[in-house]
Each structure stands twice: as structure tokens, then as C-alpha cells.
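Subject — a protein and its fold
Fields — amino acid sequence, C-alpha cells
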Amino acid sequence: MRLVEAIVNANHRALAGDPTAGLRPSDHTASLPVVALSCLDARLNPILPEVLGIPEEQFLWVRNAGNVVAGPFSDAVRSLALACLAEGAREILIFGHTDCRVAQQTVRGLLERLATWGIPRDRLPDDLQACFGLFGSETQNLHLACEVVRLSPLISPQVPVHGLMVDLDTGRLDWLVNGYETLPALEQRLQQVI
């Protein structure tokens, strides 16, 4: 059983009440350390490390508002790439979560709050949606983030990029993008391009 499969399996077993559920990191040393990109939402602080079961020294955590990946050379991708290149991360886990406050924002609402802070509209960029990385669906955002990271030339095609959704109420992990399955297809596409 591969690392992310074991993480999700242990998570589902634990939520079903299995007292023996848990990840044995020693079984997955070839896949560790991992780097994760998640939202900066503080509600994830106690949840993510616990549901993963990965020792702190094997878990690199990159965070931004909404786990948004703005492009193949964005800060998020640069951080993930450096985690792989400089820190030896072997797999990338991108986490979305339920009840994401970024998904609940509107341009109009942001403009109103910015105005109360004394920031006039003419000092702001034209495209506030892109500037703040606003999105309407946590699931759609997660799929897009995985696709952008996977296709970035900064990320090795040998590094699996997974997308997982965390339910903030229950701690349940749902594996929406299986990086193990997308590896062969991507390698074939890259070979065709080359």
C-alpha cells in the first residue's frame, strides 16, 4: 500500500471506530518526507498533522489563503519545488477543506471591507478576483491547483501530486486527485511534447 493510500485508509478506519487504525511511517520511508500545500485557515492546525500521522520532521507545510496555485511559477509552486529540491520531499499533497472562507468571499464584499480600512478602489488592481485568488468551489479549486502544480516545469514528473479534501467537522479525508494514477499519463504527455 502506497503512502497516501495508507493515510486515507487509516483515516477512514479511525473514523469508523477502529482503535488499531493508524499510519506506520516506518513502512513508507521511501515516500518521506512529504510537502503539503493547504489553506492558512487556523482550523486546520490541529486536524492536518493528526489525520496524516506523519512525524513532524517528515512533514513540510506550505500555506496560503485558499490553497490557491496562481500559476506554474507562482510562490506556491516555487515553495513546493524547493521543498522537493532542497528538503527532499518525495510527494506533494494539496489539501482543500470544507467551509473555506476564501470560497465565501466576493469582490464586492472585499471592496466594502477594504474601503472601511481606508483603502480606495483606485489603489487596487483591476482584477481583484485573481489578486485575492477567489474561487467558488473548494473541489474545483483543488483540482485546478493539482493540475497547475503537476504541469509546472519546476516539479519533476516523478513526484506524485495528490489532492485531498478535509472535512473540518469530521476530520475525514477524501482523495480526489490520485497522483500515483496521473504520473504515467503525464510522463507520456511530456514525452510527446519533447
Remarks:
- Residues 81 and 156 are 8 Å apart (CA to CA).
- The helical segments are 3-15, 47-52, 75-85, 107-116, 128-132, 138-151, 179-193.
